[in-house]
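Quick log. Single chain, no ligands specified.
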Amino acid sequence: MSEFKPKLSPYRDFYGREICEHDELAHRTGEAGIVVFLSEFENPADQWRVIYFDDWKLSRLCLQVGDKGCAFVRNRLDAGFLQGPRLAERRGSMS
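-> predicted structure:
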């Protein structure tokens, strides 16, 4: 089995820290989501998105980490977290 290595985003969080694919981002409001990379797009602004737990909408990462969004990396997730029943459990805990 190959080792999981998340992609590094070209963006940094509100505090200047690196953001990787599958990191959990949060806002001061408590809103939170997971960073995803969409390889079907060419433009980094379109490739790097955040999927939010509360409504499962996709939003551009670059719009979430600036002065207005103030998003920051709350947790660095492992690959197993996003597979199978563990994601469903997480989804249920966010309701």
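Confidence is low (pLDDT under 50) at residues 79-95.
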